[in-house]
Amino acid sequence: MNVRIACSHQVAACWRWQSACINRFRASRLAFHWGAHATVRGTLHMYRIGLLAVCLLLSLTAADVRAADKPRFTLAWSIYVGWMPWEYAGAAGILDRWADRYGIEIELVQVNDYIESINQYTAGQFDAVTSTNMDILSIAAASGIDTTAVIVGDYSNGNDAVVLREDGNLANIAGKRVHLVELSVSHYLLARALDTVGLSERDITLVNTADADMVGAWAGGGVPALVTWNPMLGEIKELAGANAVFDSSMTPGEILDLTVARSDVLEAHPEFGKALAGAWYETMAIMADPARQTTAFEHMAAASGTDLAGYTAQLETTRLFSTAAEGVEFVTSGAPRTTMQRVAEFSFDHGLLGPMAPDAGFVGISFADGSVWGSAGNVNLRFTDAYMKLAADGAL
After folding, report:
1. Which of 150, 118, 142 is nearest to 378 (CA)?
2. What is the CA radius of gyration of the chain?
3. Residue 36: which residues within 8 A CB-CB, separation 6 or more?
4. How far apart are CA 119 and CA 106, in angstroms?
């Protein structure tokens, strides 16, 4: 007999015992006069309270065992316009409701340092994480963590940009120090930007700067150029001398914002992926509903440190897949394959796939149609439409 069944039987037996004891007490032939009647009633009342307390304690113990018996998962996220829906889903109880539907628990964990959230996921501290396509490839998948993209939420359509001080000509970046989170999607965007004006990284000096330090660094006046993403980008563009000279709208569909999970966890517990998809697309429906979206946007804005105008401005530079059907359409197209080949080649050229990688195809990447780019024997990043399609078909 397992612990849950044992506790249930114990509670039921307790209630039967209480009923039998009270009945025996009532049936006793004790002689008493009316003056003692109140005493006996009081004793019976206290006796009942004591029995009820014992049963309540056993009931709570059983509830605790049932809660502990639920499979428990963790999802790490960091502040970014495309991932704020997770914060809202958690605060509004949406994530909990979907977890309850599948008999599981999901803990939502905010990590302030974006790259650190992926490092911790790679180290096994989280079951799922929000990440861009390049960072999950170069950090987790390249480290041997088999990872599945449960949700392709959006692509950056202007949320990432190269910014010059007092200069609107990208070509004039030559010879300058460029502050960025080195080896991140900002680095990738910079490389794409340099290509367009016939420059390379040899023509500039890279300065590795944490994303949390970008606004302060620019405000200090000593940074001639930088590459960053929203919400930091929005703040910087409002400061004097900031000119966005290249942004991700010029490379559409290349910087993908994903919610990914460990493939072995999903294989053992597909209900985890289903709950994530259900919560995500319920939140998307709220964001698309004119009657409910403002309240949701105000919440997301405050949680990300901006106001409603600031957050909606960020949404305008995000190609959000607002319905599951849109996500399915994108992930089953040829776009992810084309993008991931380009991203893998960049990652290999910059040593991001590790010293043992013989070529850009070292990490195999599988797609919704079952095809694989790269090593079929080392598939560690998987794009699937499975969970999004369940949501699109109303089958969750």
Report:
1. 142
2. 28
3. none
4. 20
Tokens representing 262?
A: 């460990």
Residue recorded with tokens 């340092």: 113
**Span 219-261, pLDDT tens digits:** 999 999 999 999 899 999 999 999 999 999 999 999 999 999 9
pLDDT of residue 68: 59
- Count of residues making up the chain: 396
Residue 157's pLDDT is 96
Neighbours of 17 (CB within 10 A): 13
Tokens linked to 291: 């009657």
Burial of 375 (0-12, 13-18, 19+ CB in 10 A): middle
Count CA atoms within 13 Å of residue 194 on its CB side. Answer: 20
pLDDT band at 212 (very low <50, low <70, confident <90, very high): confident
Q: What is the pTM of this model?
A: 0.79
Distance CA 147, CA 266 (A): 9
Type of residue found at 4: R
pLDDT, tens digit, 9 for 90 and up, residues 300-324: 999 999 999 999 999 999 999 999 9
- Output the CA–CA distances (angstroms, integers) from residue 230 to 146, 193, 296, in the order listed: 29, 18, 19
Interval 356-364 mean pLDDT: 96
Task: Count CB-CB contacts under 10 A for residue 207.
Answer: 16
Task: For residue 300, count CB atoms less than 10 angstroms from its CB and return exposed for 0-12, middle for 13-18, buried for 19 or more.
Answer: buried
